[in-house]
């Protein structure tokens, strides 16, 4: 009962903020660029590809930047204003942006709002091994699935702006051709010795990556960074590192690295030497304007960081 009342209050606050923002935005959107389609996304893994595919016809803004953890993110009043001004809204879904779902539900009746990962067939998604009924939301680490999810977003843009549909399609095909090059880059992961293909990270964000590239994935936390890490989790990870002689484990740009440091220290105390192989991008990409600030560049960076540390 208490949770229901809390959700009701939060929804009421969001509706109130939307009303106030709408009243203050009657004279046009906040971007000052009325000729372009105003697209708002949650994560850059959606926003950056759509900015390329949308080209000159769109203005894309992602709410969650580098080092931001979408599992824990709470919408600000500024975010609500951006959602109110948007023409089209895209988010990943599958409970990745858990604290924003009420916002999306409140605004969905007014404009197109699409959870792109939820357009994928259920059979293609990975279950959460720790929580019955939950789905792994980190779909972008399977570039085949993410291509399909982005395709659904492009179809939404075509429907919203049919006059630009041909341009969207042409740009999409060019972008998807670059994804084919990314797949060639990923082939180097298969040259890592099978027994060393163990990817240890702070939280379980790389399930789709592991399945796609035949790599065993170990996350100290569950799918969400809200999960707690116990001593048993650390000890089990150390035992696995020792069994497979894993040379390196990885921190993540959007997750506190204390748990990984605890594994390194614990392994050392047990006479097992393991290094930190580098920082991976998991729930967030790099800074805008850098290679790692693009979906393809971020993915290539992760591939090469993992390869160099484990080969």
From TrEMBL:
One BP annotation, GO: cell adhesion
Cleavable signal peptide: 1-22
GO molecular function annotation: metal ion binding
Main location as per UniProt: other
InterPro entries found in the cross-reference section: AdhesinB, Bact_metal-bind_prot9, Lipoprotein_PsaA-like, ZnuA-like
Pfam families per the UniProt record, alphabetical: ZnuA (PF01297)
Coiled coil: 165-192
Keyword set, alphabetical order: Coiled coil, Metal-binding, Signal, Transport
Keyword Signal: yes
Keyword Transport: yes
GO cellular component terms attached to this protein's record: cell envelope
Location(s), subcellular: Cell envelope
Family under the similarity heading: Belongs to the bacterial solute-binding protein 9 family.
Protein known as: Zinc ABC transporter substrate-binding protein
């Amino acid at each position: 009962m208490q949770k229901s009342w809390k959700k009701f209050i939060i929804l009421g606050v969001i509706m109130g903020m939307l009303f106030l923002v709408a009243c203050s935005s009657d004279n046009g959107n906040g971007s000052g660029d009325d000729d372009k389609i105003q697209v708002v996304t949650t994560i850059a893994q959606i926003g950056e590809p759509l900015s390329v595919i949308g080209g000159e016809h769109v203005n894309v803004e992602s709410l969650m930047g580098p080092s931001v953890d979408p599992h824990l993110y709470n919408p600000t009043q500024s975010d609500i204003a951006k959602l109110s001004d948007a023409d089209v809204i895209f988010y990943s879904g599958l409970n990745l942006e858990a604290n924003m779902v009420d916002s999306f539900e409140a605004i969905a009746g007014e404009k197109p709002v699409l959870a792109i990962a939820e357009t994928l067939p259920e059979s293609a998604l990975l279950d959460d091994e720790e929580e019955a009924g939950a789905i792994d939301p980190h779909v972008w680490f399977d570039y085949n699935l993410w291509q399909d999810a982005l395709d659904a977003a492009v179809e939404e843009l075509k429907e919203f702006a049919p006059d630009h549909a041909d341009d969207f399609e042409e740009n999409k095909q060019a972008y998807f051709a670059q994804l084919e090059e990314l797949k060639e880059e990923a082939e180097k992961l298969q040259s890592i010795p099978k027994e060393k293909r163990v990817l240890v990270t702070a939280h379980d964000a790389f399930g789709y990556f592991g399945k796609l590239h035949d790599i065993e994935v170990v996350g100290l936390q569950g799918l969400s960074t809200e999960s707690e890490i116990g001593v048993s989790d650390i000890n089990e990870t150390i035992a696995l590192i020792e069994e497979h002689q894993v040379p390196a484990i990885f921190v993540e740009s959007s997750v506190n690295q204390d748990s990984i440091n605890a594994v390194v220290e614990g392994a050392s105390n047990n006479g097992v030497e393991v290094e930190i192989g580098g920082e991976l991008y998991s729930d967030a990409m790099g800074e805008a304007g850098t290679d790692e600030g693009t979906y393809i560049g971020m993915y290539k960076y992760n591939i090469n960081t993992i390869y160099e540390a484990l080969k």
